Amino acid sequence: MKGSIFTLDFKVRDYECDIQGVVNNAVYLNYFEHTRHEFLKSVGFDFAKLTASNLLPMVYKAEITYKVSLKSGDEFVSELSMTSDGEFKVIYYQNLYRKKDHKIIAKAKITKVFVRDSKLYPSAFYIELLNKK
Amino acid sequence: MKGSIFTLDFKVRDYECDIQGVVNNAVYLNYFEHTRHEFLKSVGFDFAKLTASNLLPMVYKAEITYKVSLKSGDEFVSELSMTSDGEFKVIYYQNLYRKKDHKIIAKAKITKVFVRDSKLYPSAFYIELLNKK
Amino acid sequence: MKGSIFTLDFKVRDYECDIQGVVNNAVYLNYFEHTRHEFLKSVGFDFAKLTASNLLPMVYKAEITYKVSLKSGDEFVSELSMTSDGEFKVIYYQNLYRKKDHKIIAKAKITKVFVRDSKLYPSAFYIELLNKK
Amino acid sequence: MKGSIFTLDFKVRDYECDIQGVVNNAVYLNYFEHTRHEFLKSVGFDFAKLTASNLLPMVYKAEITYKVSLKSGDEFVSELSMTSDGEFKVIYYQNLYRKKDHKIIAKAKITKVFVRDSKLYPSAFYIELLNKK
Predict the structure, then answer these.
(1) Minimal CA–CA distance to D28: which of D44, D12, D5?
(2) What whole-number distance in Å separates Cα of residue B88 and Cα of residue B90?
(3) pLDDT of residue C129
(4) How many Å lie between the alpha carbon of B33 and the closest alpha carbon of chain D?
(5) How far is it, in rounded angstroms, from Cα B131 to Cα B114?
(6) What is the DSSP string of D47-83?
(7) Subunits touching A (CB < 8 Å, at least 3 pairs)?
């Protein structure tokens, strides 16, 4: 993935699979979120602490394309890149690909904003993460 | 919602809320899915049976916009409309709005396809649901 | 159920079912928790507020017996009774039974304690709920 | 843990935490299940395949004691031992302990049975796993 700045390994857990025997589409958002939070920790940010303060990161938009179904026991890699969009939006591009054949499983574009006291908060402080990295 | 053909009532359950005290963004996909499956049952389709046969409905794309955070105990309504897009795609438009003030909580556009023996299966059989309704 | 003081209706949602096509055993704990929290609200307590204060209700022990598997679309009733055990423990007895034939699905005994500043807090304030009821 | 025959490393994911900021008690059953299924794979069994055949492993009883709360980012180890109880029951003893200080987080006793065509199936075939190990 072009501009990938972080990767995280995953393995499907059986409880994540549904009646169809594949990972339920909602679970992918868990994978994407966990990847972002681990990325943030890797650059010294902590989601739990950020939330304990008054500055709330919120997902504003999530766009996911599902290409191949993940099955019980599948190992896959989650990677991300990040950019800003205007004063308030941060965009994450996130891919999952299967380990054994590098096939793309799913792609996501996640738009985040920051909210303090019910108002949007400029994302510049956050984007500086990119430069630190 | 224009063209709404089905509504379902929900109430937030505490275990759906995360560290921030609001419903985690992945859970919305559960709400949207449950609404679609209940809609299907209401017109005589059964997701579990469909899957037990060889015809697999799959989410191909999910686009969600989050507008207001759902909190512990919030009551909300989930509604949907449905249309086709070409030979294979079925598009669901889904809204959640809060019961007490009719505020839109989230909007989704969910694209589904049908797969039989690893091949796309025309969606015409499915769209006829609309006409039955 | 002897001494039942609260009941709540549920319907299985497909995303709660796993590869076996039945509700995953972990999800039952969600059902039990949601029932307790709705019960608490019904007597004027609020779990989210309790937590926002410094008094944390914690599950200390959970004992669940699974008798019949819940399947896609099953409707069931969740009921509970409550008692104290010593100075600190509150015991919930919780049953799920299927609506159509009143068959017991699962039984649970949930032991809760209250923690304030890392110390156990006497449960008397909580047990008074019973009397109010 | 006496008689431990398998261990698996975990790290708490933020979406597993609830309003209290700790891992929700239902999620522990996910951890316990995933550990058992990984153990089974390690001895050549596959839960998904077992289920695809007609032989259904079912949790009959789950008894969990929660000792310390898991928090965002905590790393912990899940370990298990296994034994039989009579002709039909298999008992798993499962512990979770925190990596940094070896504190016990939770203990579980999980009783499983096997069902084929709605009847209990003797567990001897399964217990032989132990001897293979």
Answers:
(1) D12
(2) 7
(3) 67
(4) 19
(5) 19
(6) HHHHHHTTEEEEEEEEEEEE-S--BTT-EEEEEEEEE
(7) B, C, D
Contacts of C52 (CB under 8 A, 6+ apart): none
**pTM confidence score:** 0.95
Contact A68, A33 (CB under 8 A): no
Cβ separation D20–C56 shorter than 8 A: yes
DSSP H helices in chain D: 27-42, 47-52, 124-132
- Which of D10, D14, D27 to mutate to test binding with chain A, by most A CBs within 10 Å of its CB? D14
Tokens of A31: 């994978």
C-alpha C41/C-alpha B76 separation (Å) is: 18
A115-129, C31-45, D3-17: lowest mean pLDDT where?
A: A115-129
pLDDT tier for residue C128 given thresholds of 50, 70 and 90: confident
CA distance D74 to D12: 5
The token duo for C127 is: 């047990």
| Shortest Cα–Cα distance, C24 to chain D (Å) | 9
Q: At what angle do helices B25-42 and A27-42 cross, to 10 degrees?
A: 170
A97 close to A62: Cβ distance less than 8 angstroms: no
Query: What is the b/e burial string over D46-76, where b = at least 16 CB atoms within 10 angstroms of the residue's CB?
Result: ebbebbeeeebbebbbbebebebbbbbbbeb
ipTM value for the complex: 0.92
Q: What is the pLDDT of residue A132?
A: 65
| C19/A21 touch (CB, cutoff 8 Å), yes or no | yes
CA distance linking residue B77 with residue D8, whole number of Å: 41
Alpha-carbon gap, residue D126 to D110, rounded angstroms: 15
Strand pairing partners for B61?
A65, B111
Neighbours of C64 (CB within 10 A): 22
Contacts 24+ apart (CB under 8 A), B94-103: B94/B32, B94/B35, B94/B36, B95/B1, B95/B4, B96/B10, B96/B28, B96/B31, B96/B70, B98/B68, B98/B70, B98/B74, B99/B9, B99/B74, B99/B75, B100/B75, B103/B67, B103/B68
Question: Which residue, C59, C63, C69, is CA-closest to C114?
Answer: C59
Has residue D132 got a pLDDT over 70? no
Q: Is the pLDDT of residue B133 over 60?
A: no
**In angstroms, rounded to a whole number, what is the distance separating the alpha carbons of residues C24 and C35?**
18
- Please give the Cα distance from A1 to A18 (Å, whole number): 29
Cα separation, D89 vs D114, in Å, equals 8
Cross-chain Cβ contact C26/D33 below 8 Å: yes
